[in-house]
Amino acid sequence: MSTNAGSGAEGPAPDGAAPGSAGGAPARPTGESGRWSSKPEVDGARPVAPSLGLRGTLLFLWRQLTSMQTALILLMLLAIAAVPGSLYPQRSVNPALTEQFLEENGRWGEVLDALGAFEVFSSPWFSAIYLLLFISLIGCIVPRVGVHLKQLRARPPRTPARLTRFTGHTRLEVPGANAEALLESARTALRRSRYRTEVREEKRSRSVSAERGLLRESGNLLFHVALVGVLVCIAGGQLTTYRGQITVIEGDGFSNSLTQYDSFESGAWFDESDMPDFRFTLEDFRATYVQPGEAGTVGEPRSFEADVQVTTPGEEQVAQTVQVNKPLHVDGASMYLLGNGYAPEVTVTDPEGSVVAEGPVITVPLGDLGYTSQLVIKAPDARPEQTAVVGYFLPTGTIDDQGPRSLYPDALDPQLALTVHQGDLGLDTGIPQNAYEVDLTTLTPVAEEDGSPVLIRLYSGQEYELPDGTTVSFDGLRRYAAFDIAHNPFERWILVFALTAVAGLILSLFVPRRRVWVRVRETPHGAELEVAGLARSDDPALEDDVKALASSLATAQDGTGGTPHDLDPRRPARAADDSSEGSAQ
Q1: How close are the terminal C-alpha atoms of the chain, in Å?
Q2: How far apart are CA 94 and CA 486, in angstroms?
Q3: C-alpha–C-alpha distance, residues 374 and 343, integer Å
Q4: Sign of the alpha-carbon dihedral angle for 249, 250, 252, 253
Q5: 303 strand-pairing partners
Q6: What is the CB neighbour count within 10 angstroms for residue 386?
Q7: What is the pTM of this model?
Q8: pLDDT digits (tens, 9 = 90+) for 424-473
Q9: Taking a C-beta distance cutoff of 8 angstroms, is the pair 373, 363 a contact?
C-alpha cells in the first residue's frame, strides 16, 4: 500500500525494522498536531520530558529523604560529625582549655572556631544533620508501621499451586494414612512451633498455610522507634539539663545555688527554681598511691575517696563517700568526683604588718606524677604596693638542677618554693581574670641586695621575711576536691530507649521469618504429602526443618515407625530447586 508522505500515515516497514520506524530509527512527533512520524527530524527538535512541577519535586525530595538508605547515610554522617567533639576541647565543657588551644594554634585555631569545632554539638551543621535524621526516621517508620499492622491482622498467604519451586520441597506417599488426620497433625505441629496457620480448601486437596517470624519486622520497627526516642531525649536533655563545677576544701561546705559554682552551664529551658535544695560539707579527702616495692608505677593513683555530710530539707544529715564512678545522688542532681589537689595554708603580711592574705590556697597540679602544683596568691590590699606570691607546692619536694619538683604525690615532705612580686595586679580594670594566673610582665620581683630575685623555700610551720618587711608563712596543709554536679531529666529515658533499641536489633537479626506449606491429597492407598518452605531472610536451617517436618508427619501416620519413602523412588526426598524461591502471594 502506498502512502502520502505529508499525511503522516505509516507505510510498510523495511526488512528487520519495527513497524512505525524508518531504518530502525525511533518514530518522533512532528507538526503542531503532535502526530507521530517515521521521518527523521529536520529542525533538530528533541522530545521534552514532562516537568515535575513544584508538587512533584517536593514529593520526590520527601521520598528521597524518608528512604531507609538516606536514614542510614544521615546516621553515619551524625557519627562522623561528632568526631571533632572528641578531638578538640569544647567551650561548654572546658572554656579555659579551649582558650589555651586557640592561643597555641593561632590562625588554625581561628579557622576551627569559625567552623564550630569547639561547639560541635550546638553548631548549625550538627543540628541540621540531627534534625534531618529525625525527620527521615519518622518518615520511614510511620508508613512501615501501618503495613506491619496489616500483616499482623492478615491471614497467612495462600498455598502456591506449585510447591516444587520452594525450599526443601518434599513429596511423600503415606500408605494407609487418613488425609484429614494427616492435615490436622501438620497444623498441630506447626502451631506448636509458633506458626500462624490457616487451613485452605483446594480443588483436589487441602493444605495448611503457615507463617512465623513477623517478630523480626516488629524488632526492626522497635529499633527505629527507640532510636527516635533516643534522639528526642537527647534533644530534651540538652534543653533542660544543667551542669556546674565546684571546688571544696576539707572542712568547708557547699550549698546548691548558682553563686556557689566556679562554672555553670544550662539548657535553654532550664529554670533555676528547679535546682534541688541540698548542701554538704567535705569532711575528709583520702588518696592512695602505688608505693615503692608494690606492683605498678610508683606514684600511680590507686583510689580517691571524699567523705561528705549531706543535708537535704526534711531529712537527717547523711554521711556518704564519693568515689570515682560512684557519684552522690540526691533528688534532682548527681555529684561526681572530678579532681583533687592540695591547699596549703599561707599567711602574707605587707611591710606595714597588715595581714593581706590568709588561709588555704587552691593549687593547680601541673600534670606530673609527683603532683607538682602551681600556687598563685594575689594581695591587692597590700601596701605600699599590690603584691603577688607565685611559685610551686611540692608534696614530697626537692630542688635540684631540674628546678623545684615533687618526687611523690603524697604529702610526705611538703614544701613551698616561692617568689614575691609587687606592682599593679590589674584588678581594677574591670576585666575578669583567672584566679589561678597572674601576669608577671607588669610586676617587679622583690630582690636581694645584689639585685637577684628572692627565692623562698618553706617547710610546714616556717616563716620567711623579705628585705622590705613582707612576710610569708606556711601554716598548714589541707586537701581539696573538685566535683561536677549535673542533672539531666531525660537521662533514664535515654537508657531505656537505648536498651529497647538493642532488644529490637537482636530480634531483627536473629528471628528468622519463614513460611511453610503442607498439602495433602487423598490417594487410593492412603495420602500424598507435600511440604515446602520459603525464607524471607537468610535462613540456612529452613530446608532441614522442612524435610524433618515431612518425615515426622509421614512416620507418625503410616504406623510403621520406619523411614517414610518418597513418592518418586528413583531419588531421595529433597528440595526441587534450592536456589529458586518464588513469591507466596
Answers
A1: 49
A2: 15
A3: 11
A4: positive
A5: 288
A6: 21
A7: 0.67
A8: 988 877 777 788 888 888 899 998 888 889 999 999 999 999 988 999 99
A9: yes
